[in-house]
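Q: Sequence in, structure out?
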Amino acid sequence: MPGRDVTREVFEGISSGGETLFYVLTAVATIIFFVGIGVRLRKYIRGRRQDVIGSPLGFVGRAARSLVDTAVNRTVAKRDPYAGVFHAAIMWGFIVLFIGTAILTVESDVIRPFAPDLSFYWGAFYLGYSLVLDVLGLVMLVGIAAMAIRRARRPRQLDYGRVDIAPATTDRGGFRTGDWIFLGWLAILGLSGFVLEGARILAHDFPDFEVFSPVGWVVAGAFRIIGLDAASAESIRYVTWWGHALTALAFVAYFPFSKAIHTLADPVNLALRSPLAGRRLPVLTASGPSPADGHLGIRDLADLTWKQLLDVDACTKCGRCHDACPAVASGAPLSPRDLILDLRQEADAAWSILAPLGEHRSDHAYGGGTAAEAEVTANGGSRLAGGLISANTLWSCTTCLACVEACPVGIEHVPTIVGMRRSLVDQAIVSPTLQAAFTSLAKQGNSFGQAGRARGRWTDDLATPIVDARREAVDWLWFVGDFASYDVRVQEATRQVARVFQAAGMDFGILYEGERNAGNDVRRAGEEGLFELLVEHNVGQLSKARFRRIVTTDPHTLNTLKFEYPDFGGDYEVWHYSQVIAALLESGDLQVSRRTNRRVTYHDPCYLARYARVTAAPRDVLAAIGAELVEMPRNGANTFCCGAGGGRVWQDDSGLAERPSEQRIREAATLAGVTDFVTACPKDLTMYTAAAKATGHDGRIEVADLIELVAAAIELPDETPPPDAEVTPTQLVAAEILPG
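A: Exactly. Output:
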């Protein structure tokens, strides 16, 4: 059993004056650390109130999951195992070394001076302690080296070039400097610790028990090979001791003002992340310091909530949101990463937080783009919406939630963007086409400019009429939606949905002209007042109908009915039609009489896969009807966007380098043997039909709705009107607004 001589002195060779100096510097570094933390906390206190706790039990569960996620690096490793493995190596190496330092501090500053009989830093404990710290210290250095190699190669997500401002007018090199300083500092701490350990072992002539410090033992052997003797090793040890100590204390002081702050901010941000982030937006309330200055949305820094200010500090600049964003891929002037970093720099500059080393706010001109924006900035000073963040940047977002889903630290980009869009609407910074859509929605209840009474005319060609759910009780109420009701291409699929439901014997009905746009995209375009008017009307109509459940073919409608209507008195059980079809096929109410035997790929709609988290049902349907599914490279929650969400379908996209829908079709065209591009969203059917034509793939790949394959598989009789059948006014007008 090893005795008390199996140990080492903490301050070996350091004079009493040197010890005093060390403790004074420790106190100074600690004070600076807590001042920095306090200044950051003061910034959060300046933010508006936001309830992110919810039920105590729910919060405890989220907090526990965040601790587990942080411990195993689950969110960091998601879709990037390289980063996950080596980030875990750095994180756990640092944590174990920190714990080791804390243990040594307790032993040397508490136990030995006041209770020497309780001393434990010797014998078997010392051997285990030395081995664990050596191994984890080496693991940390391996992780640092791997991350340094990755950063040196500068992959796309780590390129800090902006997408909204010409490179010549802004310098983001400071971000790279800050990253390298943080990584290099950790490396110096680890390397100097091993040099110190190796010099000590050589100076003591290789005590047998120090073999339990394997890295230090190897370093000591290397020193001896190059000709160092014990005296030289002692000199190196003394100098390195002070170098290591000063580097560590400087890191403590530097911590709150550097990228290192993410080690504290990120676990907290993950614990506070809303499970409905982006799915359920906050109800709009007036902002501003006084009623006289009341305004809507996020206009100024003071309009950000404390959670949004924590979000911007949590960002590690990993670039995953940047890499996933369809706006970035399309050449639009929006990067979720740059938006978050701009907000962070603005908040730090405005509220006197010492910006991280090298991460100063650039002096380039932010915003711009319209005369209205320029006037807002000139008259109001520092503004976010239309100032720091230009309107063009904010309107580029498709609210696809890819940034939120990809973020490993729980940042909620979409609610912040929508908050600033609300301010743009309040300031009348809205494009003419978007304003026209708002006007049509306010007057007619749809964005197609059609009378509400035309909403149900797609049913005219059905052999069996559909029940009016306002007059007769039904099991399922089908909330059809605008595109499914008015778009000529989508109407074909809509009629097939109705006929498949009828073939399965479903008891269902619709609201006919009583239905209006559900408001999902209206709300995400920032028009909260119009959204609430649409909700009030729809909830009123739904309250007059008698039904058990709602089904919809539109994932956008699904989201807002399921997650947002409860805030306005409408709490319903809502299904996507793919879930209903899957259940009907499983129960036998729908029988497959002719297997499809087609090689298809399936596009996960953003609002179905990411918002509603429905990914299995459409695949179950495809499997049941005999389709051979070839997955898209980006599928499930990692799906790409068609580009229509968040009100983008009502705005001009001619300035994009390439539309997201066209990129997606090109991606599908690379899949060998695929004949069908299957969708499960009315907007997707329209967008991808147009994209297939625009890219020249309409003869190579057939864009089809899921229901069209189902109808063929159950051999639904053809009820297509004859060529000379009367075309309804709805079809004529809808045809005029189709892309191209």
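Confidence is low (pLDDT under 50) at residues 360-381, 722-740.
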